[in-house]
Amino acid sequence: MIEPLVVEFDVDASVAHAFDVWTRNCVAWWPTSHTVSGDPSAITFEPLAGGRIVETGPDGAEHLWGEVLDWEPPGRLRFRWHLFFDRSEATEVEITFSPRGDGTVVRLEQTGWDNLGPAGRPRRDRTGAAWAAITSRYIATL
């Protein structure tokens, strides 16, 4: 069994603000190197279970990154994730936003690596490095 990938960090923001910046202002901090278009005009989390996670390119083309499984603002978000991969190779990401002192602890847990067979372990390792870079930009935006 391949263990979940967990990334946890504290931010100097309220739970509600941390959730909103992740879900409603993603295009402001998401690195363009981790997008399909290379210059998205929008990154949208449709705010409901069953909603899409979509990158909109500068030409208006939409690129599906995943699907929202649970939408529980401001404390929790869970989604099927397949950015850069076929939907059949999706993993699952759960992000929780919990109060800690005057700020928020953000915890991201990504699972489903076993479903990828031999590619699971190396993809998990690469994804860990990607989340480190991505979350550092998120923290700087708050």
Automatic annotation (TrEMBL):
Residue intervals of the Activator of Hsp90 ATPase homologue 1/2-like C-terminal domain: 12-116
Pfam families: AHSA1 (PF08327)
InterPro entries: ASHA1/2-like_C, START-like_dom_sf
Top-level taxonomic group: Bacteria
Annotated family: Belongs to the AHA1 family.
Name the UniProt record assigns to this protein: Uncharacterized protein YndB with AHSA1/START domain
